[in-house]
Amino acid sequence: MRTRISERLTWAFRKRVARFGGRSRFAAVSAALRRRAAAGLLAIAIVVVATAGAGCDVIESSGSSPSASTEGGEAPRRAEAKATNPPPGLPAAFTVGQRLDWSACPAPSAAQGDGDVPGDGWECATMKAPLDYRRPGRGTIDVAMIRKRTTGGERKRIGSLLLNFGGPGQSGVMGLPRYASDYATLGERYDLVSFDPRGVGRTAPVSCGEKKFEGSDACEKHSGGLLPYVGTSQTARDLDLMRYLLGDEKLNYFGVSYGTELGGVYAHLFPKNAGRLVLEAPVDPTQDRLQDNLSQVKAVQLAFDRFAQHCAITYDDCPTGSDPEQAGQRVIEVLAKLEKEPAPTDGGEKLDKDLAAHAIANYLDLGEEGWGPLVKALSEVMERGTSSKLLQRAYDHAPGARVRPWAGVSARSEASGGNGVSAFVAITCADSSLRPGFTGAEEMIKRTKAASPVFGEAWSQGVYLCYDWPFEGERVTPDVSADGASPILVVANTGDPTTPYTGAKRMAGELGKEVGVLLTVRAEGHGSYPHNRCATRAVNTYLLDGTPPRHDTTCS
């Protein structure tokens, strides 16, 4: 039985497993830097330094070095702000004995994946953090950070705004330069800051194989000493250490999809240190991993149904037909053909059934902007038998598209895309204590398939995620209760196919009656900032002026 399940799990990962978060949640863990998280890691450069004694290694402090160059030449030195409230319980070497040494950013590491060196205006630093916050003297890890200084001048500067784009498994060091233009208005008053969460990219990267994800045994073999310490609660504590070293008394934060879980856990752990927090496209903190997967597959099916109705009304030659009730059957027939014979693409790669299902979901993540391109992609495969347009969305999204926090596990080499697959699985399983037995898993697989005729089978592959994982998970669901925190803004689309809107209402409620402020956006797609003007205006007013909208405000 164990062998059968292990083989099923490995196959599912290599075909495309499911999400858990993020302008990312459960669908296939490999390379959707926008809906799911990315892929990868070749060799582990885990910077876990075991200390010899009970105390922590001394961390040498350094003054602010010259920053990375800007268009006007080398940036001037800055007198970095100092906070007065260090994280509790840490040796002084991590707090008063440590400063962030900002300098030019290095080329991407293998675990960060393909990409360019961040150019003018970007600076990087490394933060020392405990491997285990419960025993901070045991060892340290290096946390990779990136920053773009405020463009509005020091006098108008509010502080730092930390951003997490979803996943889990996305490199913020690689992501922030890609998406910074979305946050340009906020960058006039804030330093924009992001980081590689533990287990990801340059921060103690997890490896689960030489060139591709090879299963839990490989994770234990290559990264066993790290796996228990990559969960969200540990990363939330990293956030508080960052806040202090950045000189902020309170954390100002913008989290998307899985990033909302990280923000919620932070607010729970440090309610007095929570400043202006935006949680966009939030996860449902009341659902366990399998419930979340089931809710998501229902939501993506509903999003497809709305697309099919639009297609039938708008296009005479709609590829899903003139009858929206029959649209699902048409696509099911296409997927069945792709299962028997994957379709060719321009690049030589072939697109199979599971990749096609996730590609369609990724188009739906784009909202109504993705509907026209999805019509063309489906027409291509139905009329010509080729799938180049679907393949474009099966993995990475086009430049400038919003981050989609899911990730797809596939057989692609992890070395080409970073260690997002390994990190996704490791973080998910470090968080979730859910380890369903064979009978329970098979029942959930049936329910998942029945919930969506188009996407159910592909989404059901994620049920066995974390089966046979070598370590226990931390909890069933995250605790995000944050009594005593300042108002936290929760932003959600009613037509979100990745993190269903009902989860946003629950997130706002779980934060606390006087804490969670829900902003509803009547729109399709996974996330609204900065595309919806009303929502963008409300978010900017909150982050820049500190004034949240009234609870239950609605944007159209």
How many strands, which pairing sense, and closed or not: the largest β-sheet? 10 strands, mixed
Measure the end-to-end span.
Answer: 51 Å
Approximately how much helix is present in the residues?
25-40%
Structural class: alpha/beta
Beta content comes to 5-15%
- Counting DSSP E segments of at least 2 residues, the number of strands comes to 12
Shape: globular
Low-confidence stretches: 1-74, 396-416
SSE sequence, one letter per element: HEEEEEEHHEHHEHEHHHHHHHHEHEHE
Instruction: Please give the count of helices.
Output: 16
Radius of gyration: 22 Å
- Mean pLDDT metric: 85
Task: Provide structural commentary.
Mean pLDDT is 85; it is low at 1-74 and 396-416. Helices cover 35% and strands 13% of the residues. It has 556 residues and is α/β, with parallel strands linked by helices. It has helices at residues 2-16, 172-179, 184-187, 216-223, 232-245, 258-269, 289-314, 324-340, 353-365, 371-383, 388-394, 420-431, 438-451, 456-460, 501-511, 533-545, and strands spanning 49-50, 69-70, 73-74, 122-130, 139-148, 159-164, 190-195, 251-256, 274-280, 488-495, 516-524, 553-555.
Notable characteristics:
single chain; 556 residues; alpha/beta; 10-stranded mixed sheet; two-stranded antiparallel sheet; disordered N terminus
